[in-house]
Design a protein that fits this description.
- There is one protein chain.
- Helix content is 70%, strand content 0%.
- By secondary structure, the protein is mainly alpha-helical.
- The protein has 7 helices and no strands.
- Helix 1 packs parallel to helix 2, helix 1 runs antiparallel to helix 4 and helix 2 packs across helix 3.
- It has one domain.
- The radius of gyration is 17 Å and the shape is globular.
- The longest helix has 24 residues.
- The N and C termini lie close together (12 Å).
- One of its GO terms (cellular component) is membrane.
- It is found in: Membrane.
- This is Inner membrane protein YphA.
- It comes from Sphingomonas dokdonensis.
């Protein structure tokens, strides 16, 4: 493996490691807690479990695809959307009512978590558009193609 390929592997794993293995294992090993957290947004338990299973799929399958480099642009698109959706559903800083009143309050804490989710999602979008100036066209031409991050 070349130095560039090793660097690509380290960077790709670095961007997904929050999800794979940490968040995925947390959901698996603390399943009841994860269901209760999901029920804060999706009140029927069966719906919360279904949403949780979709989240596990994204965190395991899509993140693995990004690291392996198979259909990695499509997987990065899904994970970017997952980051945005979870920010909107679980990091609702605007609902806390203490954003301006308490610098150490829940609103501020959720605000920073909200921004972290969006920033991480933007990092996944960077995997889609690349840094070589080709932009979105390769993704639009073949969304399920691999970007061949480790050479051909």
């Amino acid at each position: 493996m070349t130095t560039a390929a090793i660097a690509a592997l380290v960077v790709r794993y670095g961007i997904v490691m929050l999800f794979l293995p940490f968040s995925a294992f947390d959901k698996i090993f603390s399943f009841d807690h994860a269901v209760k957290q999901a029920q804060q947004v999706f009140s029927p338990r069966s719906l919360a479990i279904a949403v949780l299973m979709v989240g596990l799929f994204v965190e395991i399958v899509c993140c693995a695809a990004i690291v392996i480099g198979v259909a990695d642009r499509a997987a990065a698109f899904v994970v970017a959307g997952y980051c945005a959706v979870t920010a909107l559903l679980y990091k609702q800083f605007w609902k806390q009512g203490d954003f301006f009143a308490d610098p150490g309050g829940k609103g501020r804490t959720l605000f920073w978590d909200f921004l972290k989710n969006l920033s991480l999602g933007a990092g996944f979008l960077l995997l889609i558009v690349g840094t070589d100036g080709s932009g979105l066209q390769p993704f639009l031409d073949a969304p399920f193609a691999s970007s061949h991050p480790y050479g051909r």
